[in-house]
Amino acid sequence: MKKIGIIGTGIMGNGMALNFLKNGNQVFVWNRTKSKTEKLTQQGAVVCKTPAETAKNADIVFEVTSDDKSSKQVWEGKNGIFQGADKSTVLIASSTLSIERTDQLAEKCRKKGLKFMDIPLTGGRIGAESGNLTLLCGGPKKTLKEITPELKKISAKIYHFGPEGHGMRYKLILNFLQSVHIIGFGQAMKLAKSSNMDLNKVSEALVEKPGGIITNISSKAYFKEPDPVTFYIKHLFKDLKYAKKFAGKSDLSLLDEVLKDYNKAVKKGFKDKDWASINTF
What we know:
- Residues 3-162 form the 6-phosphogluconate dehydrogenase NADP-binding domain.
- This is 6-phosphogluconate dehydrogenase, NAD-binding.
- Helices cover 53% and strands 12% of the residues.
- By secondary structure, it is of the alpha/beta class.
- The longest helix is centred in the middle third of the chain and has 29 residues, at 166-194.
């Protein structure tokens, strides 16, 4: 059974670590804020002093931090992942990163002779805690096959999109589409409200139509703010900015519009609210 390293024990990393522990894996964790590892320690996780120590002890390392900046710190900083990993370790970027950062990591790992995959996640807090995440994989098929038995312990679905960087590309595409749907639901409800319609009935009916999963998330957040938060507005806004860079000169007017809306939410002080509750601000 593989030894697992989790670097970053926030919403996603915490749930992943708990499920590996439940399945009998030895789990090594590191988090910048040590207090966030206390519950995992109680369940049997080993808290490491540095990302390097985590990588040194693990067969598979998941980096689950928040953005490019934190990613660079834990991979390449003093006592970072690269200082602890060897050629047998499978290194996984599960943060949602920019394409530039992901490709940079893949290239650095190639030069060092290290195994690398980008496997961003979808499923939020509930998926992480229940072990039902969807994993969006980029990297060699051989490496994916090697770690699939362990990945199944934290996921319901595993998709392989191609070489390194393609999992991250899909994640940015997905978050763009989902954010458009969230904003679209809010505008649909605004139209219903202006017509004095029964908003509960409108919402109930919309949930039954195509796109129902995201509409359902939107509907619940429209009537009651999610608690606990499943996905922070600040993190989706960061992902949308990465998607904008990824898009380059492509004419994606909807991406520009949702960026404006989430930017407004951040500027108004709602960055730590749930992504789906944007229609209530």
